[in-house]
Amino acid sequence: NVLVKDLYTKKRDFSDEPITISGWIRTIRDSKKIAFIEVNDGSYIKNIQVIAKKNALANFDDVVKLPISSTVKITGKLVETPDAQQPFELHAEEVKIEGVADPDYPLQKKKHSLEYLRTIAHLRPRTNTFYSVFKIRSLAAFAIHEYLQKYGFVYVNTPIITSSDTEGAGEMFRISTLDPDNTPQTDDGKVDYSQDFFGQETNLTVSGQLPVEAFALAFRNVYTFGPTFRAEDSHTKRHAAEFWMIEPEMAFADLKDVLDRSEGLLKYVINYLLENASADLQFLNDNVDHNLLELLHHTVDEDFARITYTEAIDILEKADVDFKFPVKWGIDLNSEHEQYLAEKAFGKPVFVTDYPRNIKAFYMRDNPDEKTVAAVDLLVPRIGELIGGSQREEREDVLEAKMKEFGLPKEEYEWYLELRKYGGTKHSGFGIGFERLLMYVTGMDNIRDVIPYPRIQGSIKF
Ligand code: 4AD
Ligand code: MG
What is the ipTM score, two decimals? Predict the structure, then answer.
């Protein structure tokens, strides 16, 4: 068997020998004596055109009646057609029918809306758009691992089931083996988790950061790459309840190292995709977002902008825009503000650093001004926030005081304080939302369309 990808990418010599391909019928046009069959074999976004002639095929009449999505195994001669739309075609000598599809197959030739395709998540990878998106998802994951491994980062698998709330935002999914209709109660009327599976309250992780920090203080450079869960009440196109995050963590590194490393990583991934997913990116550029390739080239060619939160507020206050949420030093930037900065003010990715300490997580390092922390968000055009990171508070006494100030139970974070107690080290890290990155590199506008089986508040089907 031959893969169609190898034919398009010339990994294989065109010889006179007959070849065999297996795939699914995408379209058939036929007249009485000849049929043109487009077959996709899964190895490449492009189909192979098969020419079937009545006088050359014993089962011609059965073949031309096949419904779309039927499975076939075709043997024939490959003929180069330099003047035609496709560079070659397969002249069938034998067509084995391996599976006849039901004629009411939902993906007929017409273009379907993305909304409709979400209702058939099990079939949508068969469309060109989702084929490209999920191919890119796989290649991007590989490129991320490749870049980080190349720079000596050790991959650490942090737990999915946890007892802490890393981000302190209270957006966790609880997990429990208790019978919801008959929960045991303590004397003061609370749920008695001592009878739960782990003997305590547990939840799905919102971030692997705290556990991976411990590994950074042993291996120097480490990263997580896994699923995270947030029960956020955000009905936007950029929030999912289950999403993947890449969290690199570096010992002996400060905030500037976070900016440099994350910019290097993003550019590497985009360059990798431009090289290894060019047919898919071209398809998405032609059919989904006409500015996609330009944006990606621009992203790798230009330095990202770097400003402080205070400068960002200044830019927003001077902007000739009526923001829904008024701008004032101390506010958490809203998505309209983030979009303005990335799209209008800079027209490229922009790092915003040194946010007010009160709107950020407890573990971020206090700046000498005592008003801000060594935090960074990367804002990118079309998406808004793509990365969140910071230098971590490595001073045991400062961290302990801050945990108290932020109302964190000391017993639960004893181990986290011990990382400082036993040789505190300057260290920093960041988290990339994998799906946000995929939206950026595919041009897709909704996070539901870059996740194979999205988990979004309000519904779950697959
Ligand atoms: O900014 P966040 O909350 O940062 C952290 O979790 C840190 N512990 C990261 C670190 O320093 N190691 O989340 C990081 C990124 C966001 O910038 C965003 O891209 C993505 O994760 N993200 C989501 N993506 C999809 N759906 C959601 N509900 C998301 N919440 C965050
Ligand atoms: Mg964030």
Answer: 0.99
